[in-house]
Specification:
The structure is a homotetramer of 132-residue chains. By secondary structure, chain A is α+β, with helices and mostly antiparallel strands. In chain A, 23% of the residues lie in helices and 45% in strands.
């Protein structure tokens, strides 16, 4: 799963968010992000945009784990439901493949606190597989 | 529309993105974001997370323009369709209120290039009005 | 859970679809629908509109199980991902509450074949609780 | 635009809903549906499933107008925001293509009353183009 990490490292925006890959397995990727003042909304919690960005990435990389080596993955669309304010020092985004198709992959993800007890956001999205 | 700008200025994440409010009118807010290496994905384009973050903010603030002074707005959910890679030096997110309800506001938004000719993303979302 | 069944029986459209409640528990409702020529699309499979209608209902009723007796539930929005053509004699929609809030409930659902092995559709939606 | 009408006529479910094509132009299709007791929810209004079904169809056919003769269109996903109860004798669904891609088409649609003044629902969805 070297290429997942390499691809992730090329995403400057993930660095800007301080996001890091926690684990990679077939069809499932976990990304963590530690609280930092630069990531907050008006009440000092994680901005919804941060949650969306990392859960979309987790889902995209989950899809990529199931692709041929030379394939690339693009998000076609995603929807995020924000369940509660993300009051936490660290957030964990888990993306998992729901349907692995030849051209399209559907993945779902959640963003939780570190314990996994509190779900802050739920995402379902579609990824497009670009075979090179 | 002073309070929109003030609320926006409290969102540290918007500063991290280099996002700025371009215009505010009743039910419509425009936010711009200039390309910067810290905002890119693996191909050097704007990351989808940046697009989502600013268009969600534009929609949220569009909703806030129609609220009483002491109200606050929270995103309940949003869906983004990513129509093409955001190859541009500057992206413009326009959020507009579609339905202004007492408790819920539905807004839609687009992210375009500076000319407005190319649509990079389309969003529809629901905002919750918190009356204080 | 009498009132769930009663409410369901008032939905003439569920009768038109030949939909029936299979089970009701706290936070979870299952609805089944048997194939009938009147429910098909151009290739003879269940129409996506049928899948959407019953999974939205399953989610709405799942939300209603957690409400006070006199409350009513309205769908605010839902998103459906259609994973594969619904080639089956019977489809089963399962709706479950993901977040039970005072005003808003987020629920997710799937539509499967009778065995539950094949997922045809995945939904996530928001319900509004109307307290009477 | 003969083939749009022919394809529509093969969708038995559209007949069950009493839905009819009102107009077809390049990238835009309008479908109407007249109130009938078999289409209602518990309060006697059009069921959300009816709105979703016809606006998804309008969007799918809007996409099909832009395809080669032998292509077929499948809905990949759609999201519907339900803005207000559909209290009307007739509902009109208008689907329009937002982005016409080789493999994927993004379309948006609304469901209104006959005058077009009241928007009952807003949809954005993705269609997959199957070239035969």
């Amino acid at each position: 799963m070297q290429r997942i990490q390499e691809n992730f490292d090329k995403q400057a925006f993930m660095k800007t968010l301080g996001a890091e890959i926690v684990s990679i397995e077939e069809g499932k990727v976990v990304i963590a992000c530690t609280k930092n003042n630069s990531l907050t909304q008006q009440h000092g919690f994680f901005h919804a945009g941060v949650l969306s960005s990392i859960v979309d990435s987790a889902c995209g990389y989950a899809a990529l784990t199931m692709m041929p080596e030379d394939a690339d993955v693009l998000s076609v669309e995603f929807k995020v439901n924000l369940l509660r304010p993300a009051m936490a020092d660290k957030i964990i985004a888990t993306g998992e493949v729901l349907k692995n198709g030849r051209t399209l992959v559907v993945a779902e993800g959640i963003v939780t606190d570190e314990s996994g007890d509190k779900i802050f956001a739920k995402m379902v999205g579609t990824m497009f597989v670009k075979r090179n």
